[in-house]
Amino acid sequence: RSALAATVQKKIVSERGHRIPEAYPFVIDSAAEKTAKTKAVVNALRAWGFDAELERSSVKKVRAGKGKWRGRRYQKKKGILLVTSQSCPLLKAARNIPGVDAVPVRKLDAELLAPGGMSGRVTLWTASALKEMENHKLFI
Known about the structure:
four-stranded parallel β-sheet, 14% strand, alpha/beta, two-stranded antiparallel sheet, 140 residues
């Protein structure tokens, strides 16, 4: 619950290293769940002011230490988390964007909301996801 509450706290999200627009937090219209193309999702995220966040999460660097030898050569930053009401075309369209995770509200867990135990991940909710969370009393 605390990781869920931290996603709407602008100060906590920005302290975690995310680059967010001034209008954060906001709710996305449910019509966005019908988006089926990755390019359309990227254009929408850029229009909402997440240019810097998309650039930050696309950087891939070589890990320091022996982890390179053990199959964990590269590190990437976690970016935007998109939460939808159910399985929809948006989930498939967003999975090829570096750093972006998309998940239905029923599959939401602490590791997605607070990767590495640090709460305050930048999260975009659709209106229908919030409605489903309220109707089914999830996370209460």
